[in-house]
Amino acid sequence: MDLTALTANIDGHQRKIVMSRVRPAQPSHGDSGIALEGDRTLPFTVTRAWNAPAGNYSERWYLVDPETREVLLEGPEHHVLIWGLLAWTEVTDRSPAAIPLTPGTYLVVFALGGIMGGQIEVEARLAAG
Questions:
Q1: In angstroms, rounded to a whole number, what is the distance separating the alpha carbons of residues 44 and 97?
Q2: Which of 1, 80, 92, 119 qualifies as a cystine partner to 109, CB 3.0-4.6 A?
Q3: Model pTM greater than 0.90?
Q4: What is the DSSP string of 11-39?
Q5: Could you count the other beta carbons within 10 Å of the beta carbon of residue 54?
Q6: What pLDDT tens digit does each residue of the chain (129 aa) get?
């Protein structure tokens, strides 16, 4: 029997996002993305689920301009207990402030313990109404 096939691949940091969602806080503003009123963001929520080795970590998300890689908004820092590689740990928070933003595509980048664990594209668009 070849035991190398049974060995876990533990290269890298093993911190990854397994589910993520950005949506307006007000359901009437849509079910995904960031709603804008004029040139400012309306409240929105960021939900993500982590899969990582068990432990306590600092955790944060960032809204990033994909062209310049400039961080436009830092989400609040959380100290989270990650349950381990066999379970997901979900975190949700509301955007901390309205910021100036134009319609378009942006990145939300997720970090756990200072290491990027994933990113998603998110659309910012004018709220219907």
A1: 9
A2: 119
A3: no
A4: -S---EEEEEEEEESSGGG-SSSEEEETT
A5: 13
A6: 444 444 444 455 689 999 999 999 999 999 999 999 989 999 999 999 999 999 999 999 999 999 999 999 999 999 999 988 888 999 999 997 799 999 999 999 999 999 999 999 999 999 975
The pair of three-digit structure tokens given for residue 63, joined into one six-digit string: 């809204």
| Rounded-to-integer distance, Cα 42 and Cα 36, Å | 6
Query: Which tokens belong to 36?
Result: 């804008």
Residue 124's alpha-carbon distances to 25, 28, 82, 111, 121, in angstroms, are 13, 15, 30, 21, 10
